[in-house]
Design goal:
This protein is mainly α. The protein has a domain of 81 residues. Helix 3 packs across helix 5. The chain is elongated, with a radius of gyration of 20 Å.
Length: 117
């Protein structure tokens, strides 16, 4: 395929809006976090802190099929560390589990640049 005009390589294959969808998705996620109740916000902060420390090869985040027992252990540790005001332990562990799995999924999608919807 030949063109009448010469296009430099950086112009021919440039994608200026390549990361725009990711920026918009991150902005929406930050907005949704403002709607969280206080307990969920504490848990989300703790989950992000734990995921920052687990962000190395060989951690459950990067396993193709993470070990369920390890993830349950991480959820229990987070639930024990977060002080709550009268929230039942079972519902707290369920909330921690949902937020942890969502954060792991979000970080996996961000690291591999694929979208799973």
């Amino acid at each position: 395929m030949y063109h009448d005009r010469y296009y430099p390589f950086y112009m021919a294959y440039s994608t200026p809006l390549f990361y725009e969808g990711e920026r918009q998705q991150e902005k929406e996620f930050q907005m949704i976090k403002t709607y969280y109740p206080e307990t969920a916000l504490k848990i989300q902060e703790k989950v992000e802190e734990v995921c920052d420390h687990m962000d190395y090869p060989g951690s459950p985040i990067y396993d193709e099929y993470p070990d369920r027992a390890t993830l349950d252990l991480v959820c229990r540790r987070i639930a024990d560390e977060v002080e709550t005001g009268g929230v039942a332990a079972a519902s707290l562990e369920d909330l921690v589990q949902v937020l942890l799995f969502q954060e792991i999924h979000r970080r996996r999608c961000r690291s591999c640049r694929r979208r799973y919807f």
